[in-house]
What does this fold into?
Amino acid sequence: MFKFITQKIGNKLMFTFIAIIILIMIIEMTFRIYFGVQDRIRIAEQGNKEVLDTIYAAMKHPLTVGDSDAIHRDLEEIGQKYENISVYLCDFNGIISFSTNKKTIHSNIENIIDEQKFKDTLKVNLTIGSEDSKSILAKLEGRRNLISILSIKNAPECYHCHGSSRKILGALIMKTDVEDVYKTVTAQRNRSLALTLFASILAIFITNLVVSRFIRKPLNSLVDATQRFAKGEMKVIEKYPSDEIGKLIETFNYMVSEVAKSKMELEKELTRRAKLLEERDELVALLQRANKQLKELDTLKSAFIANMSHELRTPMNAIIGYTDLLIDEVDGPLNEDQKTSLRKVAANARHLLQLINDVLDISKIESGKIELRPKEIDLRHLIEGIMATFEPLLTKKKLNFQLNIEEGAEKLYADEDKTKQILINLISNAVKFTHEGGITVSARVSERGLDKDGNPQFIEIAVKDTGIGIKEEDLNKIFDKFAQADVSTTRQYEGTGLGLSIVRGLVALHKGMVWAESEVGKGSTFYVLLPSKKEVYERNAPVIEEKMAEELAKYFEVPKEVFLGEPSYEGKLVRCWDYTQCGHVNCPEYGSPEKRCWLVLGTHCKGMKIGAYPEKADVCRICEVTRDLVLHREPLVTDIAKPSEKEKVVLAIDDNPDAVDLIKRYLEKDYRVVGILNSEEAVKKAKEIKPVAITLDIMMPRKDGWQVLKELKENEETKNIPVIIVSIIDNKTLAFSLGAADYFVKPLDGSLLLRKVKSLEAYRAIRQVLLLERDEKTREEISRILKESGYDVLAFQNSAEAIASVKTRRPDLFIVNITDPQNSAFDFIDYIKSSSDLKDIPMIALTNKELTEREKEALDGRIKDVINKALFSEEELIQELKNSIGRVGGA
Amino acid sequence: MKILVVDDNEDSRELVRKILKRQGYEIIEAIDGEDALAKAIAYRPDLILMDISIPKIDGYEVTKRLRERPDFRDTPIIAFTAHAMRGDQEKALQAGCNGYISKPINVRDFPEQIKIYLRKT
It folds into this structure.
C-alpha cells in the first residue's frame, strides 16, 4: 500500500489531497458536532430560564395570596400548551405542591426526577438557595431532559403564612424534554456530515480526474515510453500537453528521434561492416583456395620434374651405354670412320644429358625445391677434390692451376654438394674458355656483407682465367638462362648456357652473390660470396656495409647516408630497403617467403644485373619501392641519357623489361632504344625524346596500349610518330583504326621489326609527292593540302607527263587516280614497275569505285594503299590521304 | 657370381647384361617387383641391381621385404635408377640398399663399381 503511493507521483498527489480533505472534514465535523450541541444547549437553557422566570413571575402573586387554584390553572395551561415541559413546585422538603402533572402532587420530586446531579443541585437550592436558576442536563427514562431549578425564597410578604425563619420556601422545577432538540441537531449534523462526505468524495474524484488527466496520464505515457525506449523501442509520444510535462515529453521525443537516427546510422554502419567482414572472409577463403591450388600445382610441378628427370634419363642410359659398347668394340671391330661417328654420337648424347641435368637443376632452383644443408666445409679439401677431375683436361690443354687460400678463408659454412656444383661450373667454364696460361682459384675473407658489428661473414672465392674474356656489355647477360656471350661462342664452345644461371641460383640460396669482371682477350674473373658463418642463414636482416653504400652513392649521385640507416621516400619509410621479397617471376627466389635486401643479397634478382656489380649497380626494375629509392632518377627508364641530335631513337613501351630488352637487342644495330616500363609516361617521354618510331605493348598495367595509342595520336607533337603495336593479342582492326602504323603479334620477329622501323623512318623522309589526277578540282585541292602539310608536290593530269617527270626526278611517293580511264594510269604504273630505280617508291591509289579483280591483279604488290574516293567527302578524303601516307610507310 | 638385374626397361636390362656378361657374371633378369622377389628367392644372387620405378611392387619395397629375410640380410642390393633427386638416394639407403648407381651408367666404370660392391660384402 505504502509502496503503491510512493511509486507514483499521481498517487502521491492523490493521497495528499485525500488526506487533506479527510483532515478538513474531521475538523469541520468535530467543530460542528461539538459547538452545534453546546449552542443548542445554551439556547435551550436560556429558553428554559426565561420560561421559568415567566412562570415564577406569573405564580408569585397567587402564591403570595394563596390562590392555589390559579396556580393549578396556570400550570395546567402550561402542561397543555407545551407537551415537552413539566413544571413542578415543591416545598423545602421536596414534596411537590403544584405540578403540570396533577398525579405527581404530594410525591417527592426526587422520586419523579431520579437523577443524582439534580438531587445535589436541588439540595443546594433548597438549603442555601441561589439567585439565579440552575440548569442540569440529565437523562431520564432514556430521554435527555434539561432541568432548571429556581429557588423560591422566603420574602416578607410570605411571612404571614410561612413565618420568617426559613430562608428558602421551596423550588420551582421545570423539566424540558430536549430529546427532540437533540434529535434535530443530530439529524442536522448527519446531513451536514453526509454533505461533507459527499463533497469530499466529489473533491477526491475531481482531483483524481485532474491528476489523471494532467499528470498521471502524460507521466505514465512518458514512463511507458521511457521503459520501451530502454528496451530498444524507438517510438515517440504523439499526444502530449503543452505544460512542463509536455516540455519534458517533447525533449524526450527529441532525444528518442536523435537516438533512433544515430541508431539507424549505427545499424547501417554495422551492416556495412558485417558485409565487409563477409567479403573479407570470402576473399580470405578465395585466397586460401588459391593458395591450396597453388600448393597442389607446386606438388604437381615437383612430381613433374621428378618424372621428367626419370623419363629423360632412362632412354639416355640406353643411348650412351650402347654407343659406348659399340665404341669399345664389344660387338666387333669398327673402322676409324665408324668410331669417329660413334664418338660424336656419344659426345652429343652426353651434352644432351648435361643439358637435361642443368634444366632439371634450374627448375628445381626456380621452384624452390632445393633445400640447403649447410655445414662447415674445408675449402682447400673441396677444391682439391674438384681439381682432381679437371687434372686430365688441364694437362691436355697445357694449362697451369693455382690455388691461393688466404688465412681465415679456409672454412665455408655452406651446402657441400651445392658449393661443389658452383665451383665445378665456374672452373669448367674457366678451363673451357682458356687456351693458354692457366686458372687461379683464390679465396679471401670478404669485406662485403659484414655483420652489424663489422665482422666478416662471407668468403670471396675468385676463379680467374686467362681465357678469351667477355665483352663488357655481355657481362650483364651471362647469368641469364641460355645466354652465352654470343651465338658464335656457343658454336665454338659447347655448353648448355645454364651453368651460370645455376650458379646464380645456388649462390642466391646461400644468400651470397656472384659477379664477374673481364677484359676481352685477357681473361675473366668470377667472384662468388659464400657464407662462412652459420648466422647468415639464421637471420633475415640484411647486411649493408659502408663500402657498398659509398659505391651506390657515387653511382646515383646522392649522399651515401641515403643508403644507410632507414631511408624514406616522400615521407614514407622505405621498408623495401631493409627487406624485400622478389617480385620478378623469372627470379629463382620468386614466391619465396624469405625477405632479403635487394642490394646486398639480391643476387637472385634479374633486374640487378649483378654480373657487373657494383660498378654498374642498377635497381630492380620490377620492384616499385626500390624504383622509388633511386630517388630523383627517372623511374623505369632503361636508358636515361638524353639522346644526341644525330642519334635515331626508338621508344619501346612495354611493362616487361625482358620484352624491352629484346626490342633493344633487335634494333640496337641501327637505333638507340629507350625503353619505358610505365605506360603512363609514354606520351611525356615521346615528346621529350622525339623517337623515329614507337613500339607499344597492349596489355599493360595502369594504362593499356590502346589508351596510350589514342593519347599519342591525339597529341599534336606525337601524332606523326609511327606506332608499331607489339602485342600478344591480335586486334589489328582496332589498332589501325586508332592510327597504328603496323602490328606485330608476339613472339616478335626481330629482323622484320628492324625492317619495319626502317621503312617507317623512310616514310618520315617523304618530301616530294607525285600526284596523277585528271580531275582538275581534285588535283588542285589535294596539291594544296599536301603543300600545306609541307610536301613538295608534282601534280600531273596524264601518264605521259608523269612519266616524263620521273625520268629526271625521283619523288618519295606516288598518288595515282587509277580509275579514270582517260588518264590511263596503268601506263604510268607499268612504267614504274619496269624501272628498277622507281619500283620501291610507295604508291597510294585513288579510285572512284570498287576495283575489279583484273585491276586488283594488275595492282598486286604495287599499291601500298587504296582510297576509294566515292566513300569520302572532300574533307574526309584529305584526312584519309594523310592517314594513308602514314600507313604507306609500311613494307 | 650371380647378379639379379631388376629393371622394367628391356634395353636397360640388356645393356647391363651385355656389360656384365663380359666380366663373367651370371645374369638373372626380373621385370617387376613380384618377379624380382620370386627370382631373388629362387636364385639367391650374389648382388642385386634394383631399379626403383618398377611395376607392381616398387624397388624400395622389394628391398625392404628382402632385408626382412635372414638369408638376404647381407646380399648387396644396389639402387639403380634414373631418379636423380637428392631424396631418392636417401630413400634408397633407408630402404636397405647398400649403394646407388644412377642412370645413365658409365659403361667403362660400371663393372668396377659392381666389383667394389661385391668386394665390400
Observations:
- The longest strand of chain B covers residues 2-6.
